[in-house]
Design goal:
Elements: H1 2-14, H2 26-60, E1 67-70, E2 75-81, E3 85-91, E4 94-99, E5 103-107
Antiparallel strand pairs: 1-2, 1-5, 2-3, 3-4
Length: 113
């Protein structure tokens, strides 16, 4: 039984604050926050912005005759294109009208046969 009492006593004395302990400096806190946001920017925000820029460039360069894949996985060839919509041929004499935002990838010419 004395074994438990001495352990508890030792733990209580070990948690006493040091005599010369200093509170964290405001500079350390600001530096930590700046480093955190810097890492967050380079790991999350910057790559996502780059991806969005590439997607916008791809959508603005779409033209008649391009072979595309939609976000739902439909393969087709662009027959008509306007500012927001396009007509895509997915099979012989089968056309669908889609928004330009539905395009996820442009395929190389001759992929769809």
């Amino acid at each position: 039984m004395s074994l438990f009492i001495s352990d508890a006593f030792a733990a209580a004395t070990a948690t006493a604050p040091a005599a010369n302990a200093h509170p964290p400096s405001i500079i350390n806190t600001v530096l930590f926050i700046a480093v955190f946001f810097g890492v967050f920017y380079f790991l999350f925000i910057r790559p996502q912005a780059k991806k969005q820029k590439e997607l916008r460039a791809m959508l603005s360069n779409l033209s008649k005759g391009d072979e595309i894949v939609t976000s739902s996985g439909i393969l087709g060839k662009i027959k008509e294109i306007t500012d927001d919509f396009m007509v895509v041929e997915i099979a012989d004499n089968t056309n669908i009208k889609l928004q330009k935002n539905a395009v996820s990838m442009v395929l190389p010419q001759g992929t769809i046969k």
